[in-house]
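== Folding the chain ==

***
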Amino acid sequence: MKRLLSAVALATAFVAPGAWAASDIVDTAAGAGNFNTLVTAVKAAGLVDTLKGPGPFTVFAPTDAAFAKVPKADLDALLADKDKLTAVLTYHVVPGKVMAAQVKPGNVKTVQGGEITVAVEGGSVKVDNATVTQTDIETSNGVIHVIDTVIMPK
């Protein structure tokens, strides 16, 4: 038994953290440390179960710095209005798992029902008025692309 436990310990020492199973979108965002406002908003909107569901989803995730660009009074009002908050958050989500290599310029329908405009400008990918700063954070139920600005439905 002692040899078996040693073998298991040795085997797990060579497996990268997270290799057993990827976390879902919510847990990945919560664990990253720079999406605290987004996770708080997802909880306030009642979208945790949805974004922990099977998906797949593509999330254009604003960082805490992106939310900091929103005036505090506007952000507080948004967090207090569940319907508007839900609309804003689902505007950041596209059905399906779209990796960076699959992204094409044009209009893309969101879960909210509106369309975001994807463009490539000077080597950067833009989603509406936000710039994608990191791509392809894979999760068990989709992918996260990090953006530097909160985008609002038109």
